[in-house]
């Protein structure tokens, strides 16, 4: 008999990060010195978000195996708030930098996600970020070159993913995942840099008597090719269960290395 289980999660988080950590610089040089436009593409949606079935924001969470013949469904709704997300910086031929504007000073991003687990060791998921609100300064022309101000609302890059669980136990599980982002998002809202990208990850997670834990190591292969905005990082979480295990609260430390493409330090 084919049975199913439906899970729904709601995440409400805040991000207060400088542009150097949470997004990309819009780095410009005087056009008379370089004779070229600024680097193309700037994306504020750089924080990886876990699959909809995970109770954590970034790390993949523990999974409870279901009987053979059962199918699991998960729906996710998230709202994220960020501050100081994208700054415009001018760089002259001597390498001197001048802060010009904060293109996205405040932003609210909604996130829709869904997943299906037809087999306990296999999950398929999809998600879509949506810029609900963005506020920032008007871009300041520099050396005859200017960039567009942020415009919202707008859709982000559509993400699809697959997860395999070679070890699927509630107390301790191991999973391997792969994700691909299609460059379908709005460049006007700075939710897309018009580049396709992908990531692979390895996750370890489990659930004890009163706590949940998980750690995910993820790498975007284009990091090694020098693609702007590519990321590698470790995202972990430790939550305490609340109210008959319906809710949880905890800490989610993270470490990330993000590629920020910059022009040469000196022009000739």
Which structural class fits the helix and strand makeup?
Answer: mainly beta
Low-confidence stretches: 1-9, 11-39, 263-268
Number of DSSP-assigned strands: 13
* Shape estimate: elongated
Helix content: under 10%
Task: Characterize the structure shown.
The chain is mostly beta strands and 268 residues long. It has two helices and 13 strands, in the order βαβαβββββββββββ. Strands 1, 2, 3, 4, 5, 6, 7, 8, 9, 10, 11, 12 and 13 form a 13-stranded mixed beta sheet that branches. A hairpin with a 5-residue loop joins β7 and β8. The longest helix has 4 residues. The radius of gyration is 20 Å and the shape is elongated.
List the helices and strands and how they pair.
Blueprint (H helix, E strand, L loop, with lengths): L2 E14 L2 H4 L3 E3 L2 H4 L35 E22 L5 E23 L2 E14 L18 E2 L2 E10 L5 E10 L14 E11 L3 E9 L11 E12 L4 E5 L2 E5 L10
Parallel strand pairs: 1-3, 2-3
Antiparallel strand pairs: 3-4, 4-5, 5-6, 5-7, 7-8, 8-9, 9-10, 10-11, 11-12, 11-13
Q: In short, what is this structure?
A:
The chain has 268 residues and is mostly beta strands. 3% of the residues lie in helices and 52% in strands.
């Amino acid at each position: 008999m084919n049975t199913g289980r439906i899970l729904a999660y709601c995440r409400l988080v805040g991000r207060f990060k400088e542009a150097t950590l949470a997004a990309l610089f819009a780095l410009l040089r005087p056009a008379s010195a370089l004779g070229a436009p600024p680097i193309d593409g700037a994306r504020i949606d750089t924080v990886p978000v876990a699959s909809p079935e995970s109770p954590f924001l970034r790390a993949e969470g523990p999974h409870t195996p279901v009987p053979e013949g059962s199918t699991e469904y998960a729906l996710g709704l998230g709202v994220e708030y960020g501050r100081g997300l994208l700054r415009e910086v001018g760089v002259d031929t001597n390498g001197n930098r001048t802060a010009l504007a904060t293109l996205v000073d405040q932003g609210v991003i909604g996130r829709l996600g869904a997943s299906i687990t037809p087999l306990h060791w296999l999950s398929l998921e999809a998600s879509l970020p949506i810029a609900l609100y963005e506020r920032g300064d008007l871009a300041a022309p520099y050396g005859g070159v200017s960039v567009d101000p942020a415009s919202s609302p707008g859709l982000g890059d559509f993400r699809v993913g697959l997860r395999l669980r070679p070890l699927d136990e509630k107390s301790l599980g191991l999973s391997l995942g792969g994700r691909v982002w299609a460059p379908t998002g709005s460049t006007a809202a700075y939710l897309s840099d018009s580049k396709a990208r992908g990531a692979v990850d390895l996750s370890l997670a489990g659930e004890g008597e009163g706590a949940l834990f998980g750690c995910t190591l993820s790498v975007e292969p284009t990091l090694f090719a020098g693609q702007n905005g590519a990321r590698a990082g470790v995202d972990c979480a430790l939550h305490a269960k609340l109210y008959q295990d319906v809710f949880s609260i905890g800490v989610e430390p993270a470490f990330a290395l993000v590629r920020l493409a910059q022009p040469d330090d000196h022009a000739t």
